[in-house]
Design brief:
By secondary structure, this protein is mostly helical. The chain has five helices and no strands.
């Protein structure tokens, strides 16, 4: 892998994380997209949800624990039930 390709992936991941707030209305589609994208599916869900400061870190960590995930869970760990639960949590917290 070339340095430019690695940098491109890093930028794509950073852009995805920073786009959280503007994509809340379509959060379910964003979660599915990340789960299915090999360049995004290793991002931690907790980081994605809390990095921009829209959602609290402790509250989000507790929520993830409640549904059977944790702060280290990644998008690749998501199934449809987790996506539905996270979508409801985000929309209710917004």
């Amino acid at each position: 892998m070339s340095d430019s390709f690695i940098l491109e992936i890093k930028n794509k991941r950073k852009e995805f994380i920073n786009s959280f707030e503007k994509n809340i209305e379509n959060i379910d589609n964003e979660l599915i997209r990340a789960r299915n994208d090999n360049q995004l599916n290793s991002i931690r869900i907790h980081k994605y949800l809390t990095e921009t400061g829209v959602l609290g870190k402790v509250k989000t960590a507790r929520f993830l624990d409640e549904i059977g995930l944790n702060e280290k869970s990644k998008f690749s760990d998501l199934n449809d039930d987790y996506i539905e639960s996270i979508t409801i949590y985000v929309k209710n917290s917004w």
